[in-house]
Design goal:
The strands form two sheets. Strands 1-8-5-4-2-3 form a six-stranded parallel beta sheet, with helices on one face. The protein has a two-stranded antiparallel ribbon with strand order 6-7. β6 and β7 (156-161) form a beta hairpin. By secondary structure, the protein is α/β, with parallel strands linked by helices. α4 packs across α5 (95-107) and α10 crosses α14. It has helices spanning 22-25, 40-43, 46-54, 71-84, 95-107, 116-119, 182-200, 208-230, 235-248, 262-274, 278-292, 298-307, 316-333, 348-360, 374-386, and strands at 11-14, 31-35, 58-62, 88-93, 130-134, 146-151, 156-161, 169-172. It has two domains: 11-176, Rossmann fold; 181-386, Up-down Bundle (Dehydroquinate synthase-like, alpha domain).
Length: 387
């Protein structure tokens, strides 16, 4: 196990009715900026709960943050916050709203071009404090310091991380997710599942506790994922899914172990180019990437096959392939495609475009072993187009 330092200052209020805790969590002094997405929180009752909990605090609002939050939209919030002297940010929505709010928090006091936080990895030295009310389990953004932001003008989708943008608190009420469309719930399940695999399917690192924790999340998602789609208002099932998504990317299972993230890197380019849902880019990349990298990942793939899928008989190569095939089948069971052919906008030209865009950004080599280059990306995407 590698050395590590673990720090996670986010306070979590989990359970039904916990939005009322905003009254103790949000500062009374100063001005709070409430940020949200397309307005679903005003249709499902979450907005009313939030405003009631905030009471007579001075609150401004900024809506319209997209499913892939864009720099262009977020800069409007930055300008509003600067002009009005906003002192606290409250994100209400899914991971995109939370990610966007983290960028706004870092950009408000930033001197210079805020896009440099993402494009040039400019250090974040100060950020406005923020909190969150999570309404869509998926990204783990409610308890981590990472944000992914897109820019329409340049068709880029980039990430940044800073301990200064950890939410001070997050409210996780599973009941707020009951009205989510099935597509968004399925995307969340795939996103959380892939987050775990990016940290788990690498190579052995003498970290049995992290492995067992990762396997527990995977097994639980396999169990509750289909159930929560079938019965969206089953509180216990939805609560379990919500907690899995948080645990998948709050830092714990990645401590002291190698991590991959090549699937995410490649997927971000597909979203930037063609607007494909983030989780759906992961579903089309992951099976092909695992097959392409199966030799380097062999030991962990066999462990995954045995402990998660119960595959203990037959030749090792067959067990590895069955584990990958069952992973793809699980995504398909959730109605999330695992072939790029399912997306009309994607053509053979996309393969070259993605490989070159990753090169332009200086992201190579990818993977936990730093052994994925442009030709490997081409092969992975070509295999997904043929799947």
């Amino acid at each position: 196990m590698d050395n590590f330092t673990y720090y996670n200052p986010t306070k979590l209020y989990f359970g039904r009715g916990q939005i009322a805790k905003l009254d103790e969590a949000v500062p009374r002094d100063g001005t709070t900026l409430l940020l949200y997405g397309g307005g679903s929180i005003k249709r499902n009752g979450v907005y009313e709960q939030v405003r009631e909990a905030l009471g007579d605090r001075t609150v401004l609002e900024y809506g319209g943050i997209e499913a892939n939050p864009t720099y262009e939209t977020l800069m409007g919030a930055v300008e509003l916050a600067r002009a009005q002297g906003v002192t606290f940010l409250l994100a209400v929505g899914g991971g995109s709203v939370l990610d966007g709010t983290k960028f706004v928090a870092a950009a408000i006091p930033f001197e210079g071009e805020p896009w440099d936080i993402l494009r040039r990895k400019a250090p974040v030295r100060e950020a406005r404090p923020l909190g969150a009310v999570l309404t869509l389990p998926a990204t783990g953004s409610e308890a981590n310091p990472v944000a992914v932001i897109s820019r329409r003008q340049t068709q880029e989708k980039l990430a940044f991380s800073s301990p200064l943008v950890f939410p001070r608190f997050s409210v996780l009420d599973p009941a707020t997710t009951f009205s989510l469309p099935p597509r968004q719930v399925a995307n969340g399940i795939v996103d959380a599942f892939t987050h775990v695999l990016e940290q788990y399917l690498t190579y052995p690192a003498h970290a049995p506790l992290q492995d067992r924790m990762a396997e527990a999340i995977l097994l639980t998602l396999l169990e509750v994922g289909p159930k929560t789609l079938e019965d969206p208002e089953d509180y216990d099932t939805r609560a379990t899914f919500m907690w899995c998504a948080t645990m998948a990317l709050n830092g714990l299972i990645g401590l002291g172990v190698p991590q991959d993230w090549a699937t995410h890197r490649i997927g971000h380019e597909l979203t930037a180019l063609h607007g494909i849902d983030h989780a759906r880019t992961l579903a089309v990349i992951l099976p092909s990437l695992l097959r392409h990298q199966r030799q380097g990942k062999r030991a962990k793939l066999l462990q995954y096959a045995e402990r998660v899928w119960g595959l203990t008989e037959g030749p090792e190569d067959d067990r590895v392939e069955q584990a990958i095939a069952r992973t793809a089948a699980f995504f398909e069971q959730l109605d999330v495609p695992t072939s790029l052919r399912r997306y009309e906008a994607v053509t053979p030209d996309t393969v070259e475009a993605v490989a070159e865009r990753l090169k332009e950004r200086g992201f190579y080599p990818l993977g936990e072993r730093r052994d994925i280059g442009p030709d490997d990306v081409r092969a992975i995407l070509t295999a997904s187009l043929a799947a």
